[in-house]
Write a structure and sequence with these properties.
- The complex is a heterodimer of chains A (618) and B (476).
- Chain A has 618 residues and is an all-alpha fold.
- Helix content of chain A is 75%, strand content 3%.
- In chain A, α5 (127-146) runs antiparallel to α6 (153-181), α6 (153-181) runs antiparallel to α7 and α8 runs antiparallel to α11 (290-310).
- Helices cover 78% and strands 0% of the residues of chain B.
- Chain B contains 21 helices and no strands.
- In chain B, α17 packs antiparallel against α19 (403-427) and α20 packs across α21.
- The chains are: A mainly alpha (618), B mainly alpha (476).
- Chain A binds chain B through residues 574, 577-578, 580-582, 584-585, 588, 590, 592, 594-596, 598-603, 606-607, 609-611, 613-615, 617-618, and chain B through 157, 160-161, 164-165, 168, 172, 199, 201, 204-205, 207-209, 211-212, 215-216, 222-223, 225-226, 228-229, 267-269, 271-272, 275-276, 283, 286-287, 289-291, 415, 418.
C-alpha cells in the first residue's frame, strides 16, 4: 500500500460528487443516491482499512514551504474514520429524506464534496493545504444551507459571514504561525505560547472555534436549524464541524503549541467553554421547536469539549475528545430523529407535536437513547465523557465544574421537555395519520443509537483504540487509561443527583403548566430570567447583529471620511484654484503702467537678491 | 555654411521686394521654401560643429562673431517648423494678398533675428538680434487688418504693451552691457564667463539686469504683463509665430545660451532662475485656469511652460540644459499647433470665446483630436513628448537636490492638466450647441500643419530615446 492511497480518500468522494452533478437525476433519482451511498461506503471502508497505518508523503507544490503534503497519524485516522462514518450514515438517510426535494441531486453532491474536503483537511500536513480544504468547506456550507426549502439566503449569508470571518482569523494565524515556526509543515510546528506565538494561537483558536460553532460564533446555527435541510444539520453543525473544529483545536493546543495548565491560555479556553455551555443551554431550554432546540445544544456541547481541552490536563483532554465523538454520535442521531419527525408530521413545532411515541416507536427509542446520552445518564456514552471533563474541570477550579454541572441540569431538563412534548402526551394534530419513518432513515438512527450504548458500556473501545493513541504525547505523563467506570464516586453521585433534580423539576413544571411543552415555563418566566430572555429574543445579543451594526457604523464613518476627502479634492481644491485664478485675473487689469511697474519691481527684486547673495558670499 | 542662415533670409526679403507686384503672390511660398531649407539645414547641422573662422569677413563688416552648436541647431529647427506652420495658417486666414506678402517678408526678417540669436557669441549682438526680432514682431501684430474690426482697439493695445515692455527690456539690457564693459572690459560670452568667476559684485549686477531684460522678452512672471494681450490681439498666424518661436527665441533661448555659455550653475543666477521659474509656472497656470478666451488661455499656458524651462535651467546644469532644450522644442511644436488649432476654430466659428462653444468635437474631429494630443503632451502625459521633457526637468531638479521646486513642477502639472481638460470639455465635448450644428471641419490647408505637428509630438514621445540622440547630438 503506497502512501498515495490517502489521495483516494479525497478523490473518490470528490469525483462521485462531480458525477452526481452530471447524472440525469430527473429520470433516475435513485442513481444519485446510490452513487453517494457507494462512495461514502468506499470512504468508510478505506478509513477502516488504512486505520492502523502510518502514512506521509509530500509533493512539491507552490513553493515557499507550501507543499502538497499529507499525513495519516493516529489522530487523523480516527477523525477520518468518524467523518467517513457520518458521511455514510447521512448519505443513507438522504436516500429517503431528500428524495423528492428539487435540490436533491445537488445536495448529494454537496454532501460528497463536504466529505472529500473534510477528509482533505484532516489528512493535510501542510497548513496552507489544510487551509485550502478548510475554506472549501465554507462553500459547501453555504451551498447546503441554500438547498433548504424556505428562505435560506439570509441564513446562508449569515453563516458564510461568521464562518468566513473566523476563517480569516485562521488565515492570519496560519501566516503568523508559518512565519514564527519557519515551516508550514503541520507535523513539524512547535511554538512557545508567548508574545507573537500567543497571538498566532488565538487566531488559530478563533478559526477552530468558528468552525465548531462555539460562542460567540454560534448565532447562525439556530437559524440554519429552521431554514436548512435537516440532514445538513446532522452532517455539518451536528457532527463534521465539531469533529473538524475540535480536531484542529486539539492539534493547535497539543501539537503546535504546548498547552500547560500554568499558561494563561488555559483559563481563557475554559472560560469560553463554560460560557458557551451555560448560555447556549439556557437558550435551548426555552425553545419551542424540535430542531432549534437541538441547534442550541449543538452549540452548548462544544462548550464541554473546549472546557475539557482547556483544562490542559490529560483527563480533560481525553474527556473533551471523547465528548467530541460522543456528541457527534448522539447529536446527529437526534437531528435525524428530528428529520424523521419532520418528514412524517410535516412540522417541528413542538406545539403541534405530541404522542408520536405510539406511531413512531423506533424513532422514539432512538431519541430516548440519544437524549439520555446527551444528558449524561449512565451508562450511555455521554455520561462517561462528561465525567472525565468534570474531573478535569474540578481539578482546575470548582467554578468551571459548577457551571458544567448546571449545564447538565438544563440539558436534562430541556430534553425531558422535548421528549415529553414530542413523543408523549396526546396527539395534538389528530387529523394526519402518522407512520413510522422508512427504513433508510431508521437504520442510521438505530446505528447511531447503538453506538451511544456501545461507546458507553464498552468505553474502553473508543478510549483505548481511538482517542488515547491519538493523544499519545499527553498520555505519557498521565494515567495508563481513562476507560472503565469513573473512579471519583462523589462526582458520579453529584451527576446523578442533578439528573434527579432535573426529573423533579420536570414533574413540577408539567404539573404547574399542565403539559409537557410547558415543563420549563417556570424557569422561562422566573423573575429576572424572563426579562433576560425577552431581551435576547430581540436579537440584540446576536454577535452577527452587532457585527452588522458595527459594519454599518464603520461604513457610515468611512463614507463621511470619504466625502470629506472628496470635498477637499473636488470642492476645496477647485475652489481654491478658481479663487486664486480669479484674483490673479482681476490683478491683470490690462493697464500697461501697472505691467511696467511690475517689471521694474521685479528687476529691483532680482538685483537686490543678487547683491545680497554676492555680497553675503564674499 | 551657417552664415548663409543669416544671409539667405535677408537676401530673400530683398529679392521679394524687387519682384513685380504681379508675382508677389509667390512670396508666401518663397518664404516657405527658405524656412524649409532652414529646418533641413538645422537638421543636418547637428552632425557637425561649426568653427567660427568662416565668418571672419562678416566679423570685419558687422563687428560680431558667430558660432553654431547643437543648441543653435535646435532653435533653428524650431524656427523653421513653426515658421512654415505660421505661413500655412497665414495662407488660409489672411484674406488680403498684400497682407500675405507683408507677412512673408516680416517672417523672414524675424528669422534673421532668430538665427542671429541662435548663433551669436557676445551680449551686444544678442541684444541687437533680439531687437530685430522684436521690431519685426511688433509690426506683425499691428500691421494686419484682417479681422481688425472685430478686435478693434485691442490690436493697437496689445502691440503697444509689447513695445513698451520691450523698451524696458532694452533699457535693462543696454545698462547691463554698459556695466559689463565697465567690470569685464569685454562682452563676449567667454569674457563674461571669466568675469563672473572673479570677485566683485558689479558683474553680477550687470548679469541680473541682463537676465531681467530677457525675462521681459520671455514673458516670465512678474515681467509678463504684455504677453497675453499681445498674443490675443495678434492675427492668427502671428500668434502661431510669436508663441511658437519669437518669444522663446528672444527670451528663453537667450537665457538658455547665457546659462550654458556664461553663467553655468553659479549660485545667484541659479537661485533667481529657480524662483522666477517656479513663480511663473504657478501664476501662469492659475491665470490660464480662469480664462474663457481660448487664445488667452493658451497665452497664459505659454507663460507657465516658459517657467518650466527656466526652472530646469536652475537645476542640475547638464541635465537641466538638456531638459530645457527638449521642453523648448516640445513646447514650440505643441503650442504653435494649439494656436493653429485656435485659428481653425476662429475661422470656422468666428469666435474664440469658449463659453459659447461646446460639442465642437463632433463637428471638427481632426481639430479636436490634434488639440487633445498637444494639450496632453504639454500637461506631461506619457507617452507623449511633453512627458519626457517634464520628466527630465524634474530629474534635473532632483539631481540638484531642489526637491521643493521639483514638487512645484509636478503639482503645477495638475493645474496644467486641469485647465487643458477644461478647454477640451468646454470646446469639444458635450452636446453640440444648435448654433454650431452646421459647423464644418477646417480646410485641409489648416489641418495639414496641425496633423503634422501632432504626429511629431507622438513620434517624439514614442521614439524618445532615438529622438534624443538625433535632436541634441548626444547631449548639450
Amino acid at each position: 500500500m503506497t502512501p498515495t492511497v490517502l489521495l483516494l480518500a479525497i478523490a473518490v468522494p470528490a469525483a462521485a460528487g462531480l458525477l452526481a452533478l452530471l447524472l440525469p437525476s430527473r429520470r433516475t433519482p435513485w442513481a444519485t443516491s446510490a452513487l453517494a451511498v457507494l462512495a461514502c461506503a468506499f470512504e468508510l471502508g478505506l478509513a477502516i482499512y488504512i486505520f492502523p497505518s502510518d502514512f506521509a508523503f509530500a509533493w512539491p507544490w507552490i513553493g515557499f514551504g507550501i507543499e502538497f503534503a499529507f499525513k495519516l497519524s493516529r489522530f487523523s485516522a480516527f477523525i477520518l474514520l468518524a467523518i467517513a462514518s457520518f458521511g455514510f450514515l447521512v448519505s443513507m438517510y438522504l436516500v429517503v429524506s431528500m428524495a423528492k426535494a428539487p435540490s436533491s441531486r445537488r445536495f448529494h453532491a454537496w454532501v460528497l464534496f463536504t466529505v472529500a474536503l473534510s477528509a482533505g483537511a484532516v489528512l493535510a500536513d501542510n497548513l496552507v493545504l489544510f487551509l485550502v480544504f478548510w475554506e472549501g468547506l465554507l462553500l459547501t456550507l453555504f451551498a447546503m444551507i441554500v438547498a433548504g426549502k424556505t428562505k435560506p439566503f439570509a441564513t446562508a449569508i449569515k453563516a458564510f459571514v461568521i464562518v468566513g470571518l473566523t476563517d480569516l482569523a485562521l488565515m492570519l494565524g496560519v501566516m503568523l504561525t508559518g512565519h514564527l515556526a519557519g515551516t508550514l509543515s503541520m507535523s513539524a510546528i512547535r511554538l512557545p505560547l508567548d508574545g507573537l506565538g500567543a497571538v498566532a494561537f488565538l487566531l488559530l483558536m478563533i478559526g477552530a472555534m468558528g468552525k465548531s460553532g462555539a460562542m460567540p460564533f454560534h448565532s447562525w446555527i439556530p437559524d440554519a436549524a429552521i431554514d436548512a435541510p435537516t440532514p445538513f444539520m446532522a452532517l455539518l453543525p451536528g457532527s463534521l464541524e465539531k469533529l473538524l473544529g475540535i480536531y484542529f483545536l486539539a492539534r493547535v493546543s497539543l501539537d503546535f503549541f504546548v498547552l500547560t495548565p500554568e499558561s494563561w491560555v488555559s483559563p481563557v479556553l475554559m472560560s469560553i467553554g463554560a460560557a458557551t455551555i451555560l448560555l447556549a443551554v439556557m437558550m435551548a431550554l426555552v425553545q419551542k421547536d424540535y430542531k432549534r432546540l437541538l441547534a442550541y445544544h449543538a452549540i452548548s456541547q462544544v462548550g464541554y469539549m473546549i472546557l475539557g481541552i482547556g483544562t490542559a490536563l490529560p483527563v480533560g483532554i481525553v474527556g473533551g475528545l471523547f465528548h467530541m465523538v460522543n456528541n457527534a454520535i448522539y447529536k446527529s442521531s437526534l437531528f435525524l430523529t428530528g428529520g424523521a419527525v419532520e418528514k412524517e408530521t410535516g412540522t417541528t413545532d413542538l406545539h403541534q407535536l405530541g404522542g408520536l411515541g405510539r406511531s413512531m416507536p423506533v424513532t422514539m427509542i432512538c431519541f430516548l437513547v440519544a437524549a439520555a446520552s446527551i444528558s449524561g445518564v449512565p451508562p450511555f456514552n455521554g455520561f462517561f465523557s462528561k465525567e472525565l471533563i468534570y474531573d478535569g474541570a474540578l481539578e482546575r477550579g470548582w467554578i468551571f465544574y459548577a457551571v458544567a454541572l448546571v449545564g447538565s441540569f438544563f440539558t436534562a431538563a430541556s430534553f425531558l421537555k422535548l421528549g415529553h412534548a414530542a413523543f408523549f402526551g396526546k396527539p395534538s394534530n389528530a387529523k394526519r395519520k402518522v407512520k413510522e419513518a422508512p427504513w433508510p432513515m431508521l437504520v442510521p438512527m438505530i446505528l447511531l443509537a447503538g453506538l451511544c450504548v456501545l461507546f458507553g458500556v464498552a468505553n474502553s473501545l473508543p478510549l483505548e483504540r481511538l482517542i488515547q493513541p491519538a493523544v499519545g504525547a499527553v498520555m505519557k505523563h498521565g494515567h495508563e487509561t481513562f476507560a472503565g467506570f469513573p473512579t471519583n464516586m462523589m462526582l458520579v453521585g453529584l451527576t446523578i443527583g442533578v439528573l434527579a433534580l432535573a426529573v423533579l423539576n420536570h414533574a413540577f413544571g408539567v404539573r404547574r403548566s399542565g403539559k409537557g411543552i410547558g415543563a420549563v415555563d417556570h424557569i422561562h418566566h422566573a423573575p429576572g430570567l424572563s426579562s433576560a430572555y425577552a431581551f435576547q429574543a430581540t436579537g440584540a445579543l446576536d454577535p452577527y447583529r452587532m457585527l452588522n451594526w458595527m459594519a454599518k457604523a464603520a461604513a457610515r464613518t468611512l463614507y463621511g471620511i470619504d466625502r470629506a476627502i472628496d470635498w477637499i479634492y473636488s470642492t476645496l481644491a477647485s475652489k481654491t484654484a478658481l479663487v486664486t485664478s480669479s484674483v490673479l485675473r482681476r490683478v491683470h487689469n490690462g493697464n500697461v503702467n501697472r505691467y511696467v511697474w511690475w517689471a521694474l519691481a521685479g528687476a529691483v527684486a532680482v538685483l537686490l537678491a543678487v547683491l545680497a547673495m554676492v555680497g553675503g558670499g564674499r | 555654411m551657417s552664415h548663409l542662415l543669416l544671409l539667405v533670409p535677408f537676401l530673400a526679403v530683398v529679392v521679394l521686394n524687387l519682384l513685380p507686384k504681379r508675382a508677389r503672390g509667390a512670396a508666401l511660398w518663397v518664404s516657405f521654401g527658405v524656412l524649409g531649407l532652414e529646418a533641413a539645414a538645422a537638421f543636418v547641422e547637428r552632425f557637425s560643429s561649426i568653427d567660427s573662422s568662416a565668418f571672419t569677413w562678416l566679423e570685419s563688416v558687422f563687428g560680431f562673431r558667430l558660432a553654431a552648436d547643437h543648441l543653435s541647431g535646435l532653435a533653428m529647427l524650431c524656427a523653421g517648423i513653426v515658421g512654415m506652420v505660421a505661413l500655412l495658417v497665414a495662407r488660409r486666414t489672411l484674406k488680403d494678398a498684400g497682407e500675405k506678402f507683408f507677412f512673408a517678408n516680416l517672417v523672414l526678417v524675424a528669422l534673421v533675428g532668430i538665427n542671429g540669436i541662435a548663433m551669436v557669441r557676445d551680449l551686444f549682438s544678442l541684444y541687437v538680434f533680439v531687437e530685430v526680432t522684436a521690431i519685426a514682431t511688433f509690426i506683425l501684430i499691428t500691421a494686419s487688418r484682417s479681422g481688425a474690426a472685430s478686435r478693434g482697439e485691442q490690436v493697437f493695445e496689445g502691440a503697444w504693451k509689447y513695445i513698451i515692455l520691450s523698451v524696458v527690456a532694452s533699457v535693462l539690457m543696454l545698462t547691463s552691457i554698459g556695466f559689463f564693459l565697465l567690470s569685464a572690459g569685454d562682452i563676449t560670452f567667454d569674457a563674461v564667463k571669466t568675469a563672473l568667476g572673479a570677485p566683485g559684485s558689479l558683474t553680477w549686477v550687470a548679469m541680473a539686469l541682463f537676465l531681467c531684460g530677457l525675462f521681459v522678452k520671455g514673458g516670465l512672471v512678474p515681467f509678463h504683463g504684455w504677453l497675453a494681450d499681445a498674443y490675443t490681439a495678434a492675427p492668427a498666424p502671428v500668434s502661431v509665430f510669436m508663441a511658437g518661436i519669437v518669444t522663446k527665441a528672444s527670451g528663453i533661448f537667450a537665457l538658455l545660451r547665457i546659462v550654458s555659455s556664461t553663467m553655468g550653475s553659479a549660485l545667484p543666477g541659479r537661485e533667481i532662475l529657480l524662483v522666477v521659474g517656479a513663480l511663473t509656472i504657478v501664476v501662469g497656470a492659475f491665470l490660464a485656469l480662469g480664462q474663457s478666451n481660448m487664445k488667452r488661455m493658451l497665452a497664459y499656458s505659454s507663460v507657465s511652460q516658459m517657467g518650466y524651462i527656466v526652472l530646469a535651467l536652475g537645476g542640475d546644469l547638464n541635465l537641466g540644459i538638456l531638459a530645457a532644450g527638449l521642453h523648448f522644442f516640445n513646447h514650440a511644436i505643441s503650442k504653435s499647433q494649439l494656436f493653429a488649432n485656435a485659428a481653425a476654430i476662429e475661422e470656422q466659428l468666428g469666435t474664440l470665446n469658449m463659453d459659447e462653444m461646446g460639442g465642437i468635437g463632433a463637428r471638427m474631429p481632426v481639430t479636436a483630436g490634434t488639440t487633445a494630443v498637444a494639450t496632453l503632451s504639454i500637461a506631461g502625459l506619457p507617452p507623449l513628448a511633453g512627458f519626457w521633457s517634464k520628466l527630465l526637468i524634474v530629474l534635473a531638479l532632483w539631481n540638484a537636490k531642489e526637491y521643493g521646486f521639483a514638487a512645484v513642477a509636478i503639482l503645477a502639472s495638475l493645474v496644467t492638466l486641469a485647465y487643458f481638460l477644461s478647454l477640451q470639455r468646454r470646446v469639444f465635448f458635450g452636446k453640440t450647441h444648435p448654433k454650431w450644428a452646421h459647423v464644418k471641419e477646417a480646410a485641409p490647408g489648416l489641418l495639414v500643419p496641425v496633423v503634422a505637428l501632432a504626429l511629431i509630438t507622438i513620434a517624439l514621445g514614442v521614439g524618445f530615446p532615438f529622438a534624443l540622440r538625433v535632436l541634441l547630438g548626444g547631449g548639450a
